[in-house]
Design a protein that fits this description.
This protein is 76% helix and 0% strand. The longest helix has 32 residues.
């Protein structure tokens, strides 16, 4: 739970006062959120370990940590959509495609987390199935953050040259 406080937008989505042309400010904000989100991902992973060891009907820890992740992640995605998407659009010829890909990815990430939240809340799936689903999602979210940070690092180093520029 302490990580939810650290995520920059968990105060229910206030829009930060950033000049969206200031790439380094947005990048630092994204990195700070990612650090906090990684803590939440670790908590979900621990809750999955606990859920594997208890009865099928008891997955409160998993439900609560996945809900915390959903709230914090949704706030983070709102930040990226408000500030990072416009920057991506302006970086290079592939900017529109990058921004659209990011927005589509965000939609899928929200859906996937919410599906686990609903599964734990309404007990629509076996706990073991929810654990497998949650662990698979954690792998994807961690990889997505790493990829995003690599792209942002490239953009900071050379704003006119972004990773994978030749193929979008």
């Amino acid at each position: 739970m302490p990580y939810a406080i650290e995520v920059s937008l968990t105060e229910r989505h206030p829009q930060p006062q950033l000049d969206d042309t200031e790439l380094h400010i947005v990048v630092e904000r994204v990195r700070r959120d990612h650090r906090a989100l990684r803590g939440l991902l670790d908590e979900v992973e621990q809750a999955c370990d606990i859920a594997k060891q208890v009865s099928e009907r008891r997955c409160e820890a998993l439900r609560d940590t996945v809900w915390d992740l959903y709230i914090a992640f949704n706030a983070h995605l709102a930040l990226e959509e408000a500030y990072l998407a416009p920057i991506l659009r302006s970086l290079d010829a592939w900017g529109e495609l990058r921004a659209a890909t990011m927005l589509n990815s965000h939609t899928e990430q929200r859906r996937a987390i919410l599906e686990i939240v609903e599964g734990t809340h309404y007990q629509t799936k076996a706990v073991s199935a929810l654990v497998v689903q949650a662990l698979a999602l954690l792998v994807l979210l961690r990889a997505d953050m790493e990829d995003e940070e690599a792209t942002l690092a490239d953009a900071e180093r050379e704003p006119d040259v972004v990773a994978d520029q030749e193929d979008g």
